[in-house]
Amino acid sequence: MESDSGTLTIHPNEDILDTIPLNLRIKLRRLLRTILNKKLPIHDKRIMPVTALNFLMKKDANLSVLFRKSTAEKLTEEIKQAPAYDTRIRDGVYVPDRKTFNDAFRVTTLSSLPSKTKETAFQILNRTIWTNNKAFKTGRRDNPNCDWCGRRETMEHLLYDCDHHSVIIWAEVGKVMTQLLAERVGHQIARIEYTPKEIIFNVPHPSIQLYEDDVLVKKILILYIQELKRDIIYRRMNLAETHRNREVPLIRIQAHIMTTINKIISLLEYQENIQTKKPKETMIKMKTILENMVE
Hints:
Shape: elongated
Distance between the termini: 88 Å
Mean pLDDT: 86
Number of strands: 0
Helix content: 55-70%
Order of helices and strands: HHHHHHHHHHHHHHH
């Protein structure tokens, strides 16, 4: 550095170097050579009274938060997609294309989703939901079978493939959704049937994409599916002994679906603003359709 101008130069100050022990002097010259080899923009750079570290420490944002965010972004870029993508392929379980799989995680960024529902959605995508099959593999259960139907209970079985519970739920939800959209567009539409793509990977059903234009209504229907999945898991985890090994009655399934609808209506009433008007009307309409189905 030149003392008269305060600028950095590529030339070492020999007077200062002569006062430094030889081993340190060698290290400093090697450091200078390394810097020069990188061709960094050293010329005409003035020194600052505040270092970069001091500047970061005085920022409003917490330094550890910035570090975690930077690390997370770097890991995300390296991983490309969650390991659960490859485990699904390994286990022969349905998995969509990589883009659809990655886009499925966007549901966890929806501000309308309660934190517990986001957590459940994240666990489903990463296949970390606790099932009887997992309990059996870890020695905490004598068998891996479903408490409703007796087949092996994997996460996929639990959420959409149990003939005594989840299959019935999605069939009823499909009926409600079909009638809802038919009434909104004023004519009959093809029956809506939910598949793993819509249930697990959060893809809006093609009929919803085709017949529903309101973005806020689409979001509330996505929230509805997330809450249904959370309810399926909750009820399995709290299954009474008297209800095991038998098909759940249709009237009870419909009551479970109604409970989820009422839960979302209550949430919208609590939020109560101009953006909740149409979503709330939609959920109330679904409730009316389901009530008529029960009758």
